[in-house]
From TrEMBL:
Name this protein carries in UniProt: Cupin domain-containing protein
Organism listed in the record: Paractinoplanes hotanensis
Gene3D superfamilies found in the cross-reference section: Jelly Rolls (2.60.120.10)
SUPFAM superfamilies (alphabetical): RmlC-like cupins
Positions of the Cupin type-2 domain: 116-169
InterPro entries cross-referenced by the UniProt entry: Cupin_2, OryJ/VirC-like, RmlC-like_jellyroll, RmlC_Cupin_sf
CDD domains in UniProt: cupin_BLL6423-like
């Protein structure tokens, strides 16, 4: 049985005690740009210096990638064989849908469609289920299996599921300055 991502958020009561303020299973989002994939937007912080103690804190889930000092936590279930070529529907409708549901997601991707992209983030990518391939621009590749944590430091890369099973990844993205 596949894992269903769950979000539990803590905060403070009016008296200052620690309390649970949210406990739910976020609804998955899907887009034509990644057929069969489910995005679970869990939580994010605004760009700049994150704060704690705000009684009315709300997650910042968009744009998809955080700016400097911001963060995002995303679960992404990759469809089996997502690396196989697929017929792409009308490019304009795909771009419009992504701009609406996951603004900024396509910005770092290259036009040739091989999935290579570069972001100005430090990403902690943790494989939860299945296996996923991480490819670098020089052709180097490694297979991620459950329990693997990748620290992705702004390099040119692509994620691909070449297996017959879905893969669930958790991505923690921290907006960074490129030097």
């Amino acid at each position: 049985m596949p894992i269903e991502p769950r979000l539990v958020v803590t905060g403070h009561s009016s008296g200052g005690d620690a309390v649970f303020v949210d406990d739910r299973h976020p609804e998955p989002l899907s887009v034509q740009a990644l057929p069969g994939a489910d995005f679970y937007l869990m939580w994010g912080t605004a760009d700049g210096a994150p704060t704690v103690g705000d009684k009315d804190a709300v997650p910042v889930l968009r744009p998809y990638f955080p700016g400097v000092g911001g963060s995002r936590v995303i679960f992404l279930r990759w469809a089996a064989r997502s690396s196989d070529p697929e017929l792409v529907p009308d490019a304009r409708s795909v771009q419009a849908e992504v701009a609406d549901k996951l603004p900024g997601l396509l910005d770092p991707f290259e036009d040739d469609g091989d999935g290579m992209h570069t972001t100005d983030t430090v990403d902690y990518a943790i494989c939860i289920e299945g296996e996923l391939s991480l490819e670098l621009d020089n052709g180097a590749e490694t297979i991620l299996t459950p329990g693997t944590c990748v620290v992705q430091r702004g390099t040119r890369h692509a994620w691909k599921n070449k297996s017959d099973q879905p893969a669930l990844m958790c991505y923690v993205q921290i907006g960074a300055v490129r030097v």
